[in-house]
Amino acid sequence: MQPQADDVNPRSTPMAGNGGIARLFFGKELQIHRERHNLTRASLAKSLYVSESLIKQWEKGRRIPTPDHLSRLEELFKTDGILTRIREELVTTAIPLEWFGRWPEIENRATTLWSVHAHVFPGLLQTEEYARAVLHAGNHLADIDELVSARMERQQVLAKEDPPMIVALIIESALRYGIGGPKVAHDQLVHMVELSERDDVIIQVIPNSVPACARFTGPFVIANFDGGDDVAYVDNAIAGEVIEDAESLVRLRRIFDTLRAAALSQNESIELVQKVAREWIS
């Protein structure tokens, strides 16, 4: 679904797709159990030593409790592991949020997308063959052809009349992972070089030796809007997560700025990408 012209706030768009539905179901179960125990969000937050806004995000399906928080919730609600089983069987096996629901719509509205990647290249900048290899390696339960098609469809944002500015920071190790084999890896790097010729795509490589890499914990994207709040997407081994709270966004932006300050220039980065591309077919 494409966003409507009068749809100006990314926060107003409900999650859709398998991942979003699973999260909404899980959040509703949390709310039902909280209300059965006559707890307000504020009182539950106090007992868990978290913010009331975090409880709201759990119940709205925007975030999922950590295992530690989930264990405490099981104790409070006396649910005997039901919530944990829902999380493991339903939420964590659902299609990652990247391919369905809110994030593609957020990408479509953004004026700038800042991202950091350590092992694979950004989904918006992947070739179809590389995307297929990445998704296959991820051992997703969903149909790979559908996931590849969805990822390619996301890339249509680059064909817009006014596409977002993309600033992608890529840790050097990602250049040397042979995902899909030498030819796929080579073609992906060549594709990155071609994309870097666009005025709206900036690719910078962060050398593996940069100390700041030690503080990097996982890939993320920050979407910026003209006159609106930032929204981020954080990826992990289980599922993607849309981040909207101000404190987390400030932390992500600081990480991005720190890593970008240590990155090679665009020209130096592309020279390195070209060098590694030649190595894959030599």
Automatic annotation (TrEMBL):
Pfam families: DUF5753 (PF19054), HTH_3 (PF01381). This is XRE family transcriptional regulator. The lineage of its organism: Bacteria, Bacillati, Actinomycetota, Actinomycetes, Streptosporangiales. Residues 30-83 form the HTH cro/C1-type domain. It comes from the Bacteria. Gene3D superfamilies: lambda repressor-like DNA-binding domains. GO terms for molecular function: DNA binding. InterPro entries: Cro/C1-type_HTH, DUF5753, Lambda_DNA-bd_dom_sf.
